[in-house]
TrEMBL record:
It is an enzyme of class 2 (transferase). Homodimer. GO terms for molecular function: tRNA (cytidine(56)-2'-O)-methyltransferase activity. This is tRNA (cytidine(56)-2'-O)-methyltransferase. SUPFAM superfamilies: alpha/beta knot. It catalyses: cytidine(56) in tRNA + S-adenosyl-L-methionine = 2'-O-methylcytidine(56) in tRNA + S-adenosyl-L-homocysteine + H(+). It comes from Nitrososphaera gargensis (strain Ga9.2). NCBIfam families: PRK03958.1. Pfam families: Trm56 (PF01994).
Length: 174
Protein backbone atom coordinates (compact mmCIF):
# COMPACT_ATOMS: atom_id res chain seq x y z
CA UNK A 1 0.00 0.00 0.00
CA UNK A 2 1.28 3.46 -0.90
CA UNK A 3 0.05 6.42 1.11
CA UNK A 4 0.52 10.05 0.14
CA UNK A 5 -0.67 13.09 2.09
CA UNK A 6 -2.36 16.24 0.80
CA UNK A 7 -2.28 19.22 3.15
CA UNK A 8 -4.81 21.84 2.11
CA UNK A 9 -4.12 25.41 3.14
CA UNK A 10 -1.28 27.18 4.85
CA UNK A 11 -1.51 30.32 6.94
CA UNK A 12 1.65 32.24 6.15
CA UNK A 13 4.23 32.62 8.94
CA UNK A 14 1.90 31.08 11.54
CA UNK A 15 1.88 27.63 9.92
CA UNK A 16 5.51 27.13 8.79
CA UNK A 17 6.34 24.99 11.80
CA UNK A 18 3.03 23.09 11.79
CA UNK A 19 3.26 22.38 8.06
CA UNK A 20 6.84 21.19 8.47
CA UNK A 21 5.74 18.91 11.33
CA UNK A 22 2.91 17.49 9.21
CA UNK A 23 5.48 16.62 6.54
CA UNK A 24 7.89 15.12 9.08
CA UNK A 25 5.14 12.95 10.57
CA UNK A 26 4.08 11.82 7.09
CA UNK A 27 7.69 10.85 6.35
CA UNK A 28 8.45 9.14 9.67
CA UNK A 29 5.15 7.24 9.81
CA UNK A 30 5.34 5.69 6.35
CA UNK A 31 3.87 8.01 3.70
CA UNK A 32 5.87 8.35 0.49
CA UNK A 33 5.12 12.04 -0.18
CA UNK A 34 3.21 15.10 0.85
CA UNK A 35 1.51 17.57 -1.46
CA UNK A 36 1.11 21.04 0.00
CA UNK A 37 -0.67 24.20 -1.05
CA UNK A 38 0.31 27.75 -0.17
CA UNK A 39 3.80 27.07 1.22
CA UNK A 40 7.10 28.66 0.40
CA UNK A 41 10.27 26.80 -0.54
CA UNK A 42 11.67 26.85 3.02
CA UNK A 43 9.27 24.12 4.19
CA UNK A 44 10.26 21.92 1.25
CA UNK A 45 13.96 22.57 1.86
CA UNK A 46 13.70 21.71 5.56
CA UNK A 47 12.04 18.35 4.89
CA UNK A 48 14.47 17.56 2.04
CA UNK A 49 17.36 18.22 4.44
CA UNK A 50 15.91 15.86 7.04
CA UNK A 51 15.44 13.15 4.41
CA UNK A 52 19.01 13.58 3.19
CA UNK A 53 20.44 13.35 6.73
CA UNK A 54 18.20 10.58 8.08
CA UNK A 55 17.50 8.53 4.94
CA UNK A 56 14.52 7.15 3.12
CA UNK A 57 12.66 8.28 0.05
CA UNK A 58 10.18 11.06 0.65
CA UNK A 59 8.97 13.80 -1.64
CA UNK A 60 7.47 17.21 -0.98
CA UNK A 61 5.46 18.62 -3.85
CA UNK A 62 4.04 22.13 -3.74
CA UNK A 63 0.85 22.30 -5.79
CA UNK A 64 -1.75 24.92 -6.65
CA UNK A 65 -4.83 22.85 -7.49
CA UNK A 66 -5.65 20.40 -4.70
CA UNK A 67 -9.03 19.50 -6.21
CA UNK A 68 -7.42 18.63 -9.52
CA UNK A 69 -4.89 16.43 -7.73
CA UNK A 70 -7.60 14.57 -5.78
CA UNK A 71 -9.72 14.07 -8.91
CA UNK A 72 -6.71 12.77 -10.89
CA UNK A 73 -5.80 10.46 -7.99
CA UNK A 74 -9.28 8.91 -8.09
CA UNK A 75 -9.28 8.70 -11.90
CA UNK A 76 -6.03 6.69 -11.69
CA UNK A 77 -7.69 4.20 -9.32
CA UNK A 78 -6.51 5.59 -5.98
CA UNK A 79 -8.75 6.26 -3.00
CA UNK A 80 -9.06 9.51 -1.07
CA UNK A 81 -9.36 9.51 2.72
CA UNK A 82 -10.13 12.81 4.42
CA UNK A 83 -9.27 13.08 8.12
CA UNK A 84 -12.02 14.92 9.97
CA UNK A 85 -13.65 14.69 13.37
CA UNK A 86 -17.00 14.31 11.59
CA UNK A 87 -16.26 11.05 9.77
CA UNK A 88 -16.53 7.39 10.63
CA UNK A 89 -14.14 6.16 13.29
CA UNK A 90 -10.74 4.98 12.05
CA UNK A 91 -11.22 1.62 13.77
CA UNK A 92 -14.34 0.97 11.69
CA UNK A 93 -12.55 1.79 8.41
CA UNK A 94 -8.94 0.63 8.92
CA UNK A 95 -9.39 -2.92 7.62
CA UNK A 96 -11.06 -1.74 4.39
CA UNK A 97 -8.47 0.99 3.88
CA UNK A 98 -5.56 -1.45 4.27
CA UNK A 99 -6.89 -3.34 1.21
CA UNK A 100 -6.47 -0.26 -1.00
CA UNK A 101 -3.34 0.01 -3.18
CA UNK A 102 -3.04 3.81 -3.14
CA UNK A 103 -4.47 6.25 -0.62
CA UNK A 104 -4.34 10.03 -0.68
CA UNK A 105 -4.91 11.34 2.85
CA UNK A 106 -6.29 14.88 3.06
CA UNK A 107 -5.52 16.98 6.12
CA UNK A 108 -6.37 20.63 6.54
CA UNK A 109 -4.58 23.64 7.94
CA UNK A 110 -7.66 25.78 8.15
CA UNK A 111 -11.33 25.09 7.61
CA UNK A 112 -11.46 22.40 4.94
CA UNK A 113 -13.68 23.23 1.96
CA UNK A 114 -16.85 21.19 1.52
CA UNK A 115 -15.43 19.75 -1.73
CA UNK A 116 -12.90 17.74 0.30
CA UNK A 117 -15.73 15.92 2.09
CA UNK A 118 -17.47 15.30 -1.22
CA UNK A 119 -14.37 14.13 -3.11
CA UNK A 120 -13.34 11.73 -0.35
CA UNK A 121 -14.07 8.03 -0.68
CA UNK A 122 -13.68 7.88 3.10
CA UNK A 123 -14.26 10.65 5.67
CA UNK A 124 -12.33 9.30 8.64
CA UNK A 125 -12.52 10.45 12.25
CA UNK A 126 -9.68 10.07 14.69
CA UNK A 127 -12.04 10.64 17.58
CA UNK A 128 -14.91 13.10 17.52
CA UNK A 129 -13.34 16.01 19.34
CA UNK A 130 -11.32 18.95 17.99
CA UNK A 131 -7.66 17.95 17.65
CA UNK A 132 -4.50 18.51 15.66
CA UNK A 133 -4.21 17.40 12.05
CA UNK A 134 -0.68 16.26 12.88
CA UNK A 135 -1.90 13.94 15.64
CA UNK A 136 -4.69 12.66 13.40
CA UNK A 137 -2.21 11.93 10.60
CA UNK A 138 0.14 10.07 12.96
CA UNK A 139 -2.68 7.90 14.31
CA UNK A 140 -4.07 7.26 10.83
CA UNK A 141 -0.68 6.15 9.45
CA UNK A 142 0.00 4.03 12.54
CA UNK A 143 -3.33 2.21 12.06
CA UNK A 144 -2.67 1.72 8.34
CA UNK A 145 0.80 0.23 8.81
CA UNK A 146 0.02 -1.51 12.11
CA UNK A 147 3.05 0.08 13.79
CA UNK A 148 5.54 -1.64 11.45
CA UNK A 149 6.74 1.69 10.05
CA UNK A 150 8.18 2.57 13.48
CA UNK A 151 10.79 -0.20 13.14
CA UNK A 152 11.55 0.32 9.47
CA UNK A 153 15.18 1.06 8.58
CA UNK A 154 15.46 3.97 6.13
CA UNK A 155 18.34 3.59 3.69
CA UNK A 156 20.60 6.32 2.43
CA UNK A 157 20.89 8.59 5.44
CA UNK A 158 24.04 9.94 7.07
CA UNK A 159 22.70 9.68 10.63
CA UNK A 160 21.12 6.92 12.67
CA UNK A 161 19.80 6.96 16.21
CA UNK A 162 21.08 4.22 18.49
CA UNK A 163 18.23 3.43 20.90
CA UNK A 164 19.28 4.06 24.50
CA UNK A 165 17.46 4.10 27.82
CA UNK A 166 19.23 7.36 28.70
CA UNK A 167 20.95 10.08 26.77
CA UNK A 168 21.16 10.65 23.05
CA UNK A 169 23.22 8.41 20.82
CA UNK A 170 23.52 9.24 17.16
CA UNK A 171 25.83 7.32 14.85
CA UNK A 172 27.23 8.89 11.72
CA UNK A 173 27.15 6.50 8.77
CA UNK A 174 30.12 6.79 6.44
Amino acid sequence: MKVSVLRIGHRLVRDDRVTTHAALVARAFGADRIYMTGVDQSVSDTVAGVTKRWGGKFEVQVIQDWKGLAKAWKKEGGKVAHLTMYGINIDEAAERLRKEERILVIIGAEKVPREAYELADYNIAIGNQPHSEIAALAIFLDRMFKGKQLKKELAGGRLKIVPAARGKQVREIK
